[in-house]
């Protein structure tokens, strides 16, 4: 990988990739012109971590902690990742969901230093030149958003940059992809959020969103520019609105190594949780009936993965789709409706229209509720009690992010089903004591999937990222859930094991790439060793 030319003196201390702060030793201080620019006492990385944790934990709230960690990332990336990786359970909710949602809402107000590339409609015709301004040339992962559907918070425009920045931090922390190989991008095409447009501290273009042919031309130019500037990069689409997400994925998935994490990553991580749940309930996938609250990217992506899994078991596509039912803002998605957009139609069944979730649960008698609506409190006591009457071990997956958008809490899910629910959420919930037992809720966090997918694509230099790779990822993740995890009610491995999870998924993804002829790098003799060799460890190196 390429790294910046080593600097000296103050310039070195201002280089976040190379800076070690007080950990520069005596010889380095003399050779690199640092003598006098640092306090005289040399301190090792462990001491620096201790200082960071002490100061971070002193902050009054998670948003202040987010700001503090962002400042650390801007001045010393190696130390930042050491802190994150060694304390992932504590740090992930701060650097990503749920705190990143709050940070995006006020991004212009907490803005300190730019990170990533901002590309606006005014850059049409010069995007390739603009990419040359990025200081690192061996980019392998690009995460791009246009900010239209940030988590469950809606259109946040250029403030959505917090999402690509956070996702790429997880690529490094969870899968060891080197920070210099990661590029966050925001396509600032305006915003339809009136409050933001009138906010004097908003950092984006204060215009209505670009639509139609002009929007498509901008995205086309961007994708072509990335392919030319960074030919080995994987492109991840992130938090685009429903109107664009599905069609952009279809437009580019066979033209470059590209995927949409909201569709494919979410689908894979929830399929893995379903596989684990079936180990608790004792049923089979073909026996389940799923009702989705919400029919956007996440819900359709999950359903597509369920269908692919059922087809793998020998069930036809149409029959497999009949296991999945959707409730949108109008009610049950059925074939007689004339207002359905394209991505909902494959799941529109021949059935009478039902107006709401409560009626659908009563009539359709599902074994699983999957919440992806971004609307909080929709899994009510009445609904969950009805579900529990119909099913001995119902799956209740309240996946909307951030925590404030969850369809129900873990406490509610367990209490309203007499402790029989198999629960998972999008944002973390604390353990719940109920009926003399402690339940540890599983978090269906995409961080279990996308870092490993990216790593596997890098190792194999995959020319495409396919649905089969995500299916393989789901199986690999489910296989890593232990009996101990299941005994706690947890359908995912502990986040503390995320590096091992990412390595296993990377191997599974690379295997698919080699088997399907999509790999552009020769297959190594030891694929696991090749995967682990790519994984960055945030330890200081000597510059002498």
Structure description:
By secondary structure, the protein is α/β, with parallel strands linked by helices. The chain has three domains: 94-256, Malic enzyme, N-terminal domain (Rossmann fold, 3-Layer(aba) Sandwich); 264-433, Rossmann fold, CATH 3.40.50.720; 448-533, Rossmann fold, CATH 3.40.50. It is 44% helix and 10% strand. It contains 24 helices and 14 strands. The strands form three sheets. It has a seven-stranded mixed beta sheet, sandwiched between helices. Strands 1-3-2-4-5 form a five-stranded parallel beta sheet, with helices on both faces. Strands 12-13 form a two-stranded antiparallel sheet. The chain is globular and about 75 Å long. The mean pLDDT is 96.
Q: How would you summarize the topology of this molecule?
A:
Elements: H1 9-13, H2 26-31, H3 45-58, H4 62-75, H5 77-86, H6 88-95, H7 99-105, H8 107-110, E1 117-120, H9 127-131, E2 141-145, H10 162-175, E3 182-188, H11 194-197, H12 212-229, E4 234-237, H13 242-252, E5 258-260, H14 261-281, E6 290-293, H15 297-312, H16 317-321, E7 324-328, E8 331-332, H17 357-364, E9 368-371, H18 381-390, E10 395-398, H19 410-415, E11 422-425, E12 432-434, E13 437-439, E14 442-443, H20 450-460, H21 467-479, H22 483-487, H23 498-515, H24 527-533
Parallel strand pairs: 1-3, 2-3, 2-4, 4-5, 6-7, 6-9, 9-10, 10-11, 11-14
Antiparallel strand pairs: 7-8, 12-13
Helix pairs in contact: 4-5, 4-7, 5-6, 5-10, 10-20, 14-15, 14-21, 17-18, 20-23, 21-23, 23-24
């Amino acid at each position: 990988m390429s790294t910046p030319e080593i600097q000296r003196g103050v310039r070195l201390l201002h280089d976040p990739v190379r800076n070690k702060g007080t950990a520069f030793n005596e010889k380095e201080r003399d050779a690199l012109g640092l003598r006098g620019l640092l306090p005289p006492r040399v301190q090792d990385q462990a001491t620096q971590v201790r200082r960071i944790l002490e100061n971070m934990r002193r902050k009054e709230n998670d948003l202040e902690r987010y700001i503090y960690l962002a400042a650390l990332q801007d001045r010393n990336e190696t130390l930042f990742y050491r802190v994150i990786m060694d304390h992932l359970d504590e740090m992930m909710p701060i650097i990503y969901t749920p705190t990143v949602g709050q940070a995006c809402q006020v991004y212009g107000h907490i803005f300190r230093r730019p990170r990533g590339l901002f590309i606006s409609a005014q850059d049409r015709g010069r995007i390739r030149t603009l990419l040359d301004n990025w200081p690192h040339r061996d980019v392998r992962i690009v995460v791009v958003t246009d900010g239209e559907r940030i988590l469950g918070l809606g259109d946040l425009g250029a403030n959505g940059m917090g999402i690509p920045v956070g996702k790429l931090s997880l690529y490094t922390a969870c899968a060891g992809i080197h920070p210099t190989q990661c590029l966050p991008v925001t396509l600032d095409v305006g915003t339809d959020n009136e409050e933001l447009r009138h906010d004097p501290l908003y950092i984006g273009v204060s215009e209505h969103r670009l639509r139609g042919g002009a929007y498509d031309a901008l995205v086309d130019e961007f994708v072509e520019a990335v392919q030319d500037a960074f030919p080995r990069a994987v492109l991840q689409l992130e938090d685009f609105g429903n109107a664009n997400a599905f069609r952009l994925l279809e437009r580019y998935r066979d033209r470059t190594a590209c995927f949409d994490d909201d569709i494919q990553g979410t689908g894979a991580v929830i399929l893995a949780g379903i596989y684990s749940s079936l180990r608790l309930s004792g049923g089979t996938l073909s026996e389940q009936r799923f009702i989705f609250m919400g029919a956007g990217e996440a819900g359709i992506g999950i359903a597509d993965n369920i269908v692919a899994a059922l087809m793998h078991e020998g069930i036809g596509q149409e029959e497999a789709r009949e296991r999945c039912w959707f409730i949108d803002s109008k009610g049950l998605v059925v074939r007689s409706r004339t207002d359905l957009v394209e991505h909902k139609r494959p799941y529109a069944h021949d059935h009478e229209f039902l107006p709401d979730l409560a009626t659908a649960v009563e009539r359709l008698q599902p074994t699983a509720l999957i919440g992806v609506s971004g609307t909080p409190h929709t899994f009510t006591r009445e609904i969950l009690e009805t579900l529990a009457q119909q099913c001995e071990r119902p799956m209740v997956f309240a996946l909307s992010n951030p925590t404030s958008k969850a369809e129900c809490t873990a406490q509610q899910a367990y209490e309203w089903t007499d402790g029989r629910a198999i629960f998972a959420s999008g944002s973390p919930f604390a353990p719940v004591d109920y009926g003399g037992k402690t339940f540890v809720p599983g978090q269906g966090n995409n961080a279990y999937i996308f870092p490993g997918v990216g790593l596997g694509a890098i190792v194999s230099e995959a020319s495409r990222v396919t649905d089969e790779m995500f299916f393989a990822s789901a199986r690999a993740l489910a296989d890593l859930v232990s009996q101990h995890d299941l005994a706690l009610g947890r359908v995912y491995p502990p986040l503390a094991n995320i590096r091992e999870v990412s390595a296993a998924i990377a191997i599974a993804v690379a295997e698919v790439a080699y088997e399907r002829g999509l790999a552009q790098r020769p297959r190594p003799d030891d694929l696991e060793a090749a995967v682990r060799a790519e994984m960055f460890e945030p330890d200081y190196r000597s510059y002498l």
